[in-house]
Specification:
Elements (H helix, E strand, L loop, with lengths): L10 E5 L6 E10 L4 E6 L4 E4 L4 E2 L1 H13 L8 H7 L13 H27 L19 E2 L2 H21 L5 H13 L23 H24 L20 H19 L4 E4 L10 E4 L1 H17 L6 H4 L1 H23 L16 H7 L6 E2 L2 E2 H28 L7 H19 L8 H4 L5 H14 L2 H8 L6 H30 L10 E4 L5 E3 L10 H14 L11 H25 L1 H9 L10
Antiparallel strand pairs: 1-2, 1-5, 2-3, 3-4, 6-11, 7-8, 9-10, 11-12
Family: Belongs to the ERG4/ERG24 family.
Subcellular location: Cytoplasm; Endoplasmic reticulum membrane; Nucleus inner membrane
InterPro entries: ERG24_DHCR-like, Lamin-B_rcpt_of_tudor, Sterol_reductase_CS, Tudor
Length: about 625
């Protein structure tokens, strides 16, 4: 095991990932297994760096002086070197020569070049103005407008013009320029452009209860789905009335599994159609951006047309209701098989393509959370496809099947008002997600979580079969509501949807283009990563306003089922627990990523989801 070069608490110079710039950092810990140092920047950001990306302050300053000594203005002669140390000091007893005047101009040009080089640093690292003079100090500036970068660029524009003129009319010989280029290409100083090496670290902090917790969830998630569906089939779905367990062979039907496979591959065909725009996702840790085709809404239209054709030829869609348990079992089996495939293929994936939260080295944990971040077969992105297509569109189809089943079982000419509300609210939610499909590229599921059992089971089983629980419940337990009650529930759902959509749109637009003139009125706290934390609009009200809107809509979806049983309210109870847990994960990641800027944001926006409550 190699010895440590830097000790805990030592102040050194660390290279900022993805750049060639070094900043003063403090060593906080060392990982003996991965051989990585955890360092803390002045703004509170903590990162893991390799030893090759860390230098002592003394050697760093020495290299800097070497860089100065190797400049063209200090290589001509010993006498010119003595003058170059103080360009403004004339020679004693005699007038400044023409060569000295040229050296003076070269120094001016060098100063202007350094100023111009500072421009991309200020633009890329906007929050450098927010750095502290102490490791745990307060930022000098806490809020900025999106137009601040434009003003800065306008202020530096005259310097850039001077630089351009001096470069065009420089009196330095081409021989000196060539010699300078050769020296800079030979010497690897701290300002030289070097290829950035990707640092892949093991997942240190395990979520979901670690190995034991994830193992239990692999068992409990399918058990919960089947328990809920069995409860809905009972005449008395009380919690104390535990349903009888069906025979295992009754849960499997080869024909049903074939229908499920047909559905999955039909959505895959729609996904591969060359329609819709192609956009880039957020930058990966390597700096690369993946491309995604945005055609989910078209897939929904084609699916609706296909369902319409089936209904025209009198296909009994309530077949889904009659074999609902078998469809859930087929989806669960397929999700398990897909998860095994994903884990096996991830063992051969490059280190830089592994998920930051699913690279622990423990089989069960990585299998559950997902080992590979963006598994693809050619251009077919498996995680992105499953995120919105088979499960989300399938949810709408299941709701429609439940509506038709209710009409047939209860001999209704029109669906009940409760069923209409549930179908309408959830249809709006799905259509909104598909219409704003591009927004999913900025979510934690895409940018952080790997694709494993958690997302595969969630997308293919949990979403279509648990989110449709209200519609499934109403088939066997019809509930009558009045028009005033229906109007009140509709208003509640509209309020939740408005908060959800406007908050997400505000966040996604700001992430995509912070310099958009339409967002100039938004205030934000700059961070060391170059991103800003919004402190106005919905994001200045609570830290997760989109979660608040989601929970309000979830309540509106359950209210049409009445208050006879708590079972239809499982969704809203589960959703609150899910979003509170996800909010805690967000808090942890943001604290590590943004450092002191996140502390300032939490002081400015104290409430997490529920204003004045939580």
């Amino acid at each position: 095991m190699p010895n440590r070069k830097f000790s805990d608490g030592e102040v050194v110079m660390g290279r900022w990932p993805g750049s060639v710039l070094y900043y003063e950092v403090q060593v906080t810990s060392y990982d003996d297994v991965a051989h990585l140092y955890t360092v803390k920047y002045k703004d509170g950001t903590e990162l893991a760096l390799k030893e090759s990306d860390i230098r002592s302050q003394s050697s760093f300053k020495h290299r800097k002086s070497q860089s100065s000594s190797s400049s063209p203005s200090r290589r001509s002669s010993s006498r010119s070197r003595s003058r170059s140390r103080s360009p403004g000091r004339p020679a004693k007893g005699r007038r400044r020569s023409a060569s000295q005047s040229r050296e003076h101009k070269d120094d001016k040009k060098k100063t202007i070049q350094e100023t111009s080089l500072a421009l991309p640093v200020l633009v890329l690292f906007k929050p450098s103005e927010n750095n502290t003079k102490r490791y745990n100090g307060e930022p000098e500036s806490t809020e900025k407008n999106a137009t601040s970068c434009i003003i800065l660029e306008q202020k530096l524009k005259p310097d850039l013009e001077v630089k351009r003129v001096l470069e065009q009319y420089s009196l330095r010989s081409r021989k000196d320029d060539k010699k300078k280029e050769e020296i800079y290409s030979e010497k690897k100083t701290f300002v030289a452009v070097k290829p950035i090496e990707k640092v892949s670290t093991k997942t240190k902090e395990l979520e979901f209860g670690g190995r034991i917790g994830t193992f239990m969830m692999i068992i409990l998630l399918p058990a919960t789905v089947f328990y809920l569906l069995l409860m809905c089939k009972q005449d008395d779905p009380s919690l104390l009335n535990f349903p009888a367990l069906p025979a295992l062979e009754s849960l499997w039907d080869g024909r049903v599994f074939g229908v499920f496979l047909l559905w999955f591959f039909l959505q895959a065909v729609f996904y591969l159609l060359p329609i819709g725009k192609v956009v880039e996702g957020l930058p990966l840790s390597s700096g690369r951006k993946l491309q995604y085709r945005i055609n989910g809404f078209y897939a929904f239209i084609f699916t609706a047309a296909a369902i319409g054709v089936l209904l025209y030829f009198q296909f009994e869609l309530h077949y889904l209701y009659d074999h609902f348990m078998q469809f859930a079992a087929s989806a669960a089996a397929f999700a398990l098989a897909l998860s095994i495939y994903l884990y096996v293929r991830s063992l051969k994936a490059p280190e830089e393509e592994l998920a930051p939260g699913g690279n622990s080295g423990y089989f069960i944990y990585d299998f559950f959370t997902g080992h590979e971040l963006n598994p693809r077969i050619g251009s077919f992105d498996l995680k992105y496809f499953c995120e919105l297509r088979p499960g989300l569109i399938g949810w709408v189809v299941i709701n429609l099947a439940m509506l038709l089943a209710e009409m047939k079982i209860h001999n209704l000419s029109v669906p009940s008002l409760s069923m209409i509300l549930v179908n309408s609210f959830q249809l709006l939610y799905v259509v909104d997600a598909l219409w704003n499909e591009e927004a999913v590229l900025t979510t934690m599921d895409i940018t952080h979580d790997g694709f494993g059992f958690m997302l595969a089971f969630g997308d293919l089983v949990w979403v279509p079969f648990v989110y449709s629980l209200q519609a499934f419940y109403l088939v066997g337990h019809p509930t009558t509501i009045t028009w005033p009650v229906a109007a009140a529930i509709t208003v509640l759902n509209c309020i939740g949807y408005y908060i959800f959509r406007s908050a997400n749109s505000q966040k996604n637009n700001f992430r995509r283009n912070p310099a958009d003139p339409k967002l100039a009125n938004l205030k934000f706290i700059p961070t060391a990563t170059g991103k800003g934390l919004l402190v106005t609009g919905w994001w200045g009200f609570v830290r997760h306003p989109n979660y608040l809107g989601d929970i309000i809509m979830a309540l509106a979806w359950s209210l049409p089922c009445g208050f006879n049983h708590i079972l239809p309210y499982f969704y809203v109870i589960y959703f609150i627990c899910l979003l509170v847990h996800r909010e805690a994960r967000d808090e942890h990641h943001c604290k590590q990523k943004y450092g002191l800027a996140w502390d300032r944001y939490c002081q400015r926006v104290p409430y997490r989801i529920f204003p004045y409550i939580y």
